[in-house]
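Let's see one such:

===
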Amino acid sequence: MSAIADLAALEDKGEFARRHIGPSDAEIAAMLKVVGTDSLEALAARTVPAAIRSSAPLPLPPAATEAETIAELRALAAKNRADIKSLIGIGYHGTLTPPVILRNVLENPGWYTAYTPYQAELAQGRLEALLNFQTMVTDLAGLPVANASLLDEGTAAAEAMALAHAATRGKSDTIVIAADVHPQTRAVVAGRAEPLGFRVLVTKPAEIIATVRAEKPFALLLNYPGTTGEIRDLTREIAAVHEAGGLAIVAADPLSLVLLTPPGEMGADVVVGSTQRFGVPMGFGGPHAGYMAVKDAHKRLMPGRLVGVSLDAAGQPAMRLALQTREQHIRREKATSNICTAQVLLAVMASMYAVWHGPEGLARIAKRVALQARLLAGAAKRAGFALRHADFFDTICIEAGGKAEALIAGALKRGFNLARHEGGGVGIALDETVTRDDLLALVEAIAEAGGQAAPKLDGIMPEGGFPAALARSSAVLTAEVFRSHHAEHAMLRYLKRLEDKDVALNRSMIPLGSCTMKLNATAEMIPVTFPGFGNIHPFVPVDQATGYLEMIRRLESWLCAVTGFAAVSLQPNAGSAGEYAGLLAIRSWHRARGDLHRDICLIPSSAHGTNPASAVMAGMKVVVVGCDRDGNVDLDDLRAKAEQHAAKLAALMVTYPSTHGVFEEAIREICALIHEKGGQVYMDGANMNAQVGLTSPAAIGADVCHLNLHKTFCIPHGGGGPGVGPIGVAAHLAPYLPSHPMLAEAGPMATSHGPVAAAPFGSASILPISYAYIRMMGPDGLKRATQVAILNANYIATKLAEHYPVLYRGSQGMVAHECILDCRGFQQNGGASVEDIAKRLQDYGFHAPTMSWPVTGTLMVEPTESETMGELDRFIAAMVAIRGEIRAIEQGRMDRADNPLKNAPHTAAEVMASDWSHPYSREQAAFPLPYVARQKYWPPVKRVDNVHGDRNLVCTCAPLEAYAQAAE
């Protein structure tokens, strides 16, 4: 063999896949023996029905190494013009991420690999950060209640519209939108309104009051400042909609609210917006944390998540998610929204930006950009231009007329993108990244367009600004947290203190069924912070984002290969948004064929709660299909209901593998039945981690599916967001994928329903993560990952079967990538509930599996392919030990009321206290197995009292002692 051949043989293109997949070859062999098969291929054959199983390799490029992939993405990022500073505005601004936040939050797996804080006791750090976010939003907006973030500003405004319609009890179906609301927000709201039967009127600001009085809408949507920069007192417009019986929604720039009268003080009912400019890079449009604040009367209609303060079992203050009856798994088709996610990681960044700068620092930034705008306004006047608005905060609109293109070209020549507005207007949105040299260059561009010599900055008289009557008089960010961490040591230690309270993937396995908490490799995360990806405005000229578009097109093609579909849209910025977009595509297809009457959506009773909520949002009526005793769709019930509703059948929503963790044998028959009756099949892609390389949505007969890139394709959960939920569709549905009014390349403009997110490609800046994962795994690695995910689940199911009944299995005795452990019998025999088991697992250092869903009283376990055999064995040992504790209660060897399960979790303060009155030892409480002592996690609080928290809702910051005193 030649030296060159030797070199080729020594190249290890599969190294990344071996590191991503936890078990070694020897461990895989041992685990296969436990589950009773001799190979991964044989295991797959026993798990995935032969009729849908594929033997062909995925048509993807071969695996690349970490170094090659990072270099490839660096080259793509370099094709984007990050050297051009975008002063376009329209809801997106340049910002400076404080390095202490960049390194210790965005780039820190202790923050980005955490799960949604449903288990409050081991999520106190994230919950405190989100409480800070809510407090920041309520202070800025001037309203008492805010949620823990939404997906972006456009969808937040759409959510506010739905809230307003519910609050006014449908007395009107008309919403009035001011013409100076950002165009992408108008488009998202209009798209959301149409399936719900709402009428949208876009009205010039001067005509708003007359229109509201004549139309009596259920809501009025305003921008503050407007998209071209104008600031106006909204009090009269808000009063007019109140007189008409509607609600006032104001989309507001948070930095402006540091200096301007907050909308809540003008009477606004709902205030929404984006916190992007609080330290979160533009990233070609996302992800960014949208926000919503409401009057107290509307808090129970507010979508998404709300963090509240309650007490733990020891009477100490503790935070948790509040008012969880709004969660979609509970309310299903009666939910006000399908949003069951937040942008937690980005909300944490934005809140920490406010903590870092404090009220004085934010005011300094706001005053500086406002002064910059006034200086450029003075330069424009000096150059002979008029301003469209005399009152503005940080954005001016120059009436350039026929000189508009010359002004834009002159600015571009000097390294700046400006905004085009109708009627020859040129917008310049100032931000904290603009330097003195930048200002001088912009003045030169303005003077050149006006045919004059550029003055010195010192010679320019500032013009305009916001009137004194609109200057903020109320205090902002008064909570102690915003005044305490301005030294870097203090901030660093605060972030570390919060991180240490939580359990994330960098500490232990998070075995949540249906949530796929798998490895988010460091190599995948590195490109996210490349300037060429972070510093790109979503509305730059297309030739400035060629690297992004190239990456997006490749990723789309790879996802087509994985799903077997003809086309993919990456715009939906959450799984819930993907569901909605998929159903809109089906709805649009029916309507294009003249089938306007098809509005019935069949949904199995086991489906994710977002499924029925999404169907209702898409204008469909939900009909529930039952499941049989094995957890499969009840075929007889499905046939009966498909026949009953054949004339109006629009779609079936089905999760595959099923929500019960099983590959249903009859899936092709199910799809064929729906097609026979004229409907389409929507496949929920939550469980794609069990399909990739073995089968596909197209192979089972589905027409559309959404993919959770934050599950199967390695984008980290970030404590409950960000996510990406793209949809793949068969060829006949491709014309109905999302589009965007600001970018033709985003989708099929002529036939699309429109956008489902504010940005053309949704959360574009985190797409490099999934790109890198697919690129480094290659077709063989992706298939092996799926096989090992199935192996790990079956290994756990086999090892725990003698201790916990496994509720559902396939026809050959196998589970898919997750298994359901039945804990219902323990409540009667041992007095131990599934919640007791979940809380006791915290003492062993583990986050609990998915609790009481899809079956009450069960635990759904998904280990993923990333966990080693050693970690699986530690989890198994913990579950076996807990079963032993339950058995001790059953046999009377432990007290039924005072035992380690009922008292779990145990805090360090409790274990170290001089008084210990329990009949079991401190060691059993805190160190129940030998491995625990070597890597002990101490839950910071005892079990949280949810009932107390909902009865005494507190959702903003105060000294924690104040909550305890109030409880006393």
Q: What stands out?
A: The radius of gyration is 28 Å. DSSP finds 35 helices and 25 strands in the chain.
